[in-house]
Design goal:
single chain, about 220 residues, alpha+beta, Glutaredoxin, 2 domains, about 10% strand
C-alpha cells in the first residue's frame, strides 16, 4: 500500500538518521503492519530538534518516533500501534477472543522477554564495542540472550510463524530478531534464522523498508 497523504492513519518518522540506523527505526513496524493489512497511511517526518521539543512530547512523551494518530486515537509505542492496526485486519489478528489474546501475548513477549536481551548486545556491539567494560560483559550478555533464543526456538519448532499463521506478533518478533548482532549465536538456532528470513522475505516488509529508506534525506537539517 503506497503512502497516501489523505489516509486516516498518520505515522511519524525521522527525516534523517545516521547510516547505521537506517532501516531499523521503529516506525518500520507500523509501516509494515499497514502494508500487510492493505491500509494506507501518511507519514510526518521530523528532525531531532522537533522530536525533542515540548510540542511533540505531547504526542510522544519520550521524544522518540514513531507517534501515531487516526480519526479515533492518538498513541505512542510501536508495539501498541501494530496492535491497533491489527484490529482492522484479520490478516494480522484473529477475531476470536482466544486468538487475539495469543497475539497480544506474543507481542508483549517479543518486547519484554526478548528485545531487552537483544538490545543489551546491540548496545555493546554497536555503541560500546571498544569499551573495556563492554568486552568484559559481552560473554554474560551472550549467555543471557542464548537462553532467550533457546526458549523461543523450542517453542517455534518447525512452525512457520509464532501462531501458525503470520500475524502482528511476527512483525514485532521478526524486527526484534533482525537486530541480533552476533551471527555465530544465531547459527545455533537454524529454525530462528529460517523464521526471520521467512518474515523478512514478505513483500509487505520489503515495501515498508523501502518506504522508510526513501523518506530519509541525504543530510541532516541545519539548525
Amino acid at each position: 500500500m503506497p503512502i497516501d497523504a489523505n489516509a486516516d492513519i498518520e505515522i511519524t518518522g525521522f527525516a534523517w538518521v545516521p547510516d547505521f540506523a537506517r532501516g531499523y527505526v521503529r516506525d518500520l513496524r507500523p509501516r509494515w503492519a499497514c502494508e500487510e493489512a492493505g491500509i494506507g497511511y501518511r507519514q510526518r517526518l521530523l528532525d531531532f530538534e522537533t522530536a525533542k521539543g515540548e510540542g511533540y512530547r505531547q504526542e510522544q512523551p519520550f521524544g522518540q518516533v514513531p507517534a501515531y494518530r487516526d480519526s479515533e486515537v492518538q498513541m505512542f509505542e510501536s508495539g501498541a500501534m501494530v496492535l491497533r492496526i491489527a484490529e482492522r485486519s484479520e490478516k494480522l489478528m484473529p477475531r476470536d477472543a482466544a486468538g487475539r489474546a495469543r497475539i497480544l501475548t506474543w507481542v508483549t513477549a517479543a518486547l519484554n522477554s526478548v528485545e531487552p536481551f537483544v538490545f543489551d548486545l546491540v548496545n555493546i556491539d554497536t555503541f560500546n564495542k571498544d569499551a573495556e567494560w563492554a568486552k568484559l560483559r559481552r560473554p554474560q550478555v551472550i549467555d543471557s540472550l542464548r537462553g532467550r533464543l533457546s526458549s523461543l526456538s523450542n517453542w517455534l519448532g518447525d512452525k512457520p510463524y509464532l501462531e501458525d499463521d503470520f500475524s502482528a506478533a511476527d512483525i514485532i518478533m521478526a524486527t526484534v530478531m533482525r537486530e541480533v548482532s552476533d551471527d555465530a549465536l544465531m547459527a545455533e538456532f537454524p529454525n530462528l534464522i529460517a523464521y526471520r528470513e521467512r518474515c523478512l522475505d514478505r513483500p509487505a516488509f520489503k515495501r515498508a523498508l523501502e518506504a522508510q529508506l526513501s523518506s530519509f534525506s541525504a543530510e541532516p537539517a541545519m539548525a
